């Protein structure tokens, strides 16, 4: 598995660039990751990212789009507006989590 | 294969009673609710069952009511079909038999679905079906999926994706449906893409039973959260969930349920006697995929290993090539019907190992 430098830190990622260690993530890294996939972070974006981080800590799995809707309270349609085209994948990427089950 | 007139409905349905061992009481009734706090199962006919240990195995079902416009009476089973139910399959068979051309759209609403290869298999069989009827050039086939590619796992996704291409089946990936417009016969996605159809074959959202939600025992799709290696409920120490009803990150497939149950039976005895459970499930799945014109392929994978190429041993039939089309794999699927009713369902062992074996397989990487 590759180790790359993001925001001046050595970070473990998989072949697709998803972080592999939960604790290596921080908001600085998230900003860099978001920029790489051309997502402009607003409060609405951060809300989802924080929900994903918390939910993963409890459940041990990345929340699916459906879960972000039913438990996190953000409709799937809005997720598509915030993270265009591939919201589930993009949200997980920025949150430093594995791709959710549905798309593995 | 029913929608294409290969099997008849009667051949696929059997009475359950005589499959149960004599010392098992089989109660045919609907579950209304479980109260896990007091160990009770309430049936809709008013009876109440008390349990020491509970194993939930109520599966998953297609829910066309969960997507706006999908089960609209103007189009449901007239131009919009499901084939995961017997009624749906029979209605679809009749619609396909008279089709002369137009746009056939095969669609998956959301993962997970039971038998995740079934829609691909349907696409391959539809291609062959129209070719045999000499009207393939009049039918456009489109495959619409919420996934990034043809299938969930990269190696097989690539392989199966090129099989779609060879058959001139257009892939529409990353399509998360918002609604179906029954008037214009169009699928509309969350990001406002539109796919029109003349005939839609959809896999509706699959969900666990509603009573699981009523009992407060499910996740957002009514699946029971369990430990993925032992099937023990995360929340209740005397509840297990097996098969499609659980939330394990494996395919919702009969093969997975079969492999899982083989190790579960021993684990369960150990568990109720207070010993630790010895076996750990690895997510082993094994699926035949019919690819049309009397050929088929076979894939084999688990939680961590991607579908592999190589050979897979099946009793009486011999080694079957993995992830590769062959006539032998098609014969394997046909023979499987006999193995299923005569051996598997009665709990007789077949010499296929429960945990995935790497013998005879070649590991390829996804790149
Ligand atoms: C068209 C199709 C093709 C498939 N092909 C394959 C294949 O080729 N290979 C493969 O491996 N898998 C295949 N599958 C998937 C396979 O059928 C399922 O994964 C398997 O049946 C799951 O078994 P299960 O016991 O968990 O659930 P099920 O077989 O669904 O059984 C659930 C049972 O629970 C009962 N139940 C539900 N709710 C209640 C209630 N409230 N009260 C009382 N009883 C209730 C139901 O009546 C049912 O008998 C296919 C599925 C479909 C639909």
Describe the structure concisely for a colleague.
By secondary structure, chain A is mainly alpha-helical.
Characterize the structure shown.
By secondary structure, chain A is mostly helical. Chain A has helices at 27-36, 43-59, 65-70, 76-82, 87-95, and strands at 3-6, 9-12. Chain A has one domain (3-94). Chain A has a two-stranded antiparallel ribbon with strand order 1-2. In chain A, α1 (27-36) packs antiparallel against α5 and α2 packs across α5. The longest helix of chain A has 17 residues, at 43-59. The model of chain A has no long low-confidence stretch (mean pLDDT 93). Chain B is α/β, with parallel strands linked by helices and 367 residues long. In chain B, 23% of the residues lie in helices and 24% in strands. Chain B starts with 8 loop residues before the first helix and ends in a 5-residue tail after the last strand. The mean pLDDT of chain B is 88. The interface between A and B is medium-sized, with 20 and 19 residues. The site of flavin-adenine dinucleotide has 22 residues of chain B, from α6 and β16. Flavin-adenine dinucleotide binds at residues 30-31, 57-59, 83-84, 114-115, 118, 209, 211, 243-245, 252-255, 257, 287-288 of chain B.
Detail the topology: elements first, then pairings.
The complex is a heterodimer of chains A (104) and B (367).
Chain A: E1 3-6, E2 9-12, H1 27-36, H2 43-59, H3 65-70, H4 76-82, H5 87-95
Antiparallel strand pairs in A: 1-2
Chain B: H1 9-12, E1 31-35, E2 40-43, E3 48-50, E4 54-56, E5 60-62, E6 80-81, H2 86-97, E7 102-108, H3 118-132, E8 139-144, H4 154-166, E9 169-172, E10 177-181, E11 186-189, E12 194-196, E13 199-203, E14 206-208, H5 210-214, E15 239-241, H6 254-272, E16 285-292, E17 295-301, E18 309-314, E19 318-322, H7 327-344, E20 361-362
Parallel strand pairs in B: 4-15, 6-13, 7-8, 7-13, 8-9
Antiparallel strand pairs in B: 1-2, 2-3, 5-14, 10-11, 11-12, 16-17, 18-19, 18-20
The complex binds flavin-adenine dinucleotide.
């Amino acid at each position: 598995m590759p180790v790359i430098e993001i925001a001046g830190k050595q970070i473990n990622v998989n072949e697709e660039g998803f972080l592999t260690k939960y604790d290596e993530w921080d908001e600085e890294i998230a900003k860099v990751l978001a920029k790489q996939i051309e997502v402009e972070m607003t409060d609405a974006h951060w809300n989802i990212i924080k929900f994903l981080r918390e939910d993963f800590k409890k459940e041990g799995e990345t929340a699916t789009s459906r879960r972000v809707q039913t438990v996190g309270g953000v409709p799937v349609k809005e997720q598509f507006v915030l993270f265009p085209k591939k919201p589930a994948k993009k949200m997980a990427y920025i949150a430093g989590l594995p791709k959710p089950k549905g798309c593995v | 294969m029913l929608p294409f007139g290969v099997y008849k409905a009667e051949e696929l349905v059997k009475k359950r009673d005589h499959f149960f061992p004599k010392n098992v009481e089989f109660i045919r009734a609907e579950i209304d609710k479980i109260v896990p706090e007091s160990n009770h199962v309430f049936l809709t006919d008013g009876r109440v069952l008390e349990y020491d240990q509970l194993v939930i195995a109520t599966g998953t079902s297609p829910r066309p009511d969960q997507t706006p416009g999908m089960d609209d009476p103007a189009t449901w089973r007239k131009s919009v079909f499901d084939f995961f139910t017997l009624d749906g399959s029979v209605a679809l068979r009749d619609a396909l038999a008279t089709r002369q051309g137009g746009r056939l759209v095969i669609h998956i609403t959301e993962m997970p679905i039971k038998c995740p290869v079934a829609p691909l298999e349907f696409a391959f069989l539809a291609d062959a079906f129209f070719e045999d009827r000499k009207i393939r050039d009049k039918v456009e086939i489109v495959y619409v999926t919420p996934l990034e590619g043809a299938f969930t796992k990269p190696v097989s996704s690539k392989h199966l994706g090129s099989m779609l291409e060879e058959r001139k089946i257009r892939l529409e990936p990353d399509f998360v449906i918002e609604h179906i417009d029954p008037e214009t016969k169009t699928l509309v996605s969350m990001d406002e893409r539109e796919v029109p159809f003349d005939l839609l074959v959809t896999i509706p959202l699959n969900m666990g039973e509603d009573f699981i939600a009523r009992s407060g025992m499910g996740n957002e799709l009514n699946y029971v959260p369990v430990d993925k290696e032992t099937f023990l409920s995360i929340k209740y120490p005397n509840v297990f969930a097996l098969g499609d009803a659980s939330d394990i990150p494996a395919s919702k497939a009969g093969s997975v349920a079969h492999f899982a149950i083989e190790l579960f039976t021993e684990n369960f005895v150990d568990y109720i006697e207070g010993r630790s459970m010895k076996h750990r499930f690895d997510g082993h799945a094994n699926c035949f995929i019919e690819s049309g014109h009397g050929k088929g392929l076979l894939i084999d994978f688990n939680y961590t290993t991607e579908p592999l190429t190589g050979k897979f041993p099946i009793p009486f039939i011999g080694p079957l090539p993995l992830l590769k089309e062959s006539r032998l794999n098609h014969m394997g699927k046909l023979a499987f019907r006999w193995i299923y009713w005569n051996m598997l369902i009665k709990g007789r062992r077949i010499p296929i190992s429960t945990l995935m074996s790497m013998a005879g397989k070649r590991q390829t990487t996804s790149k």
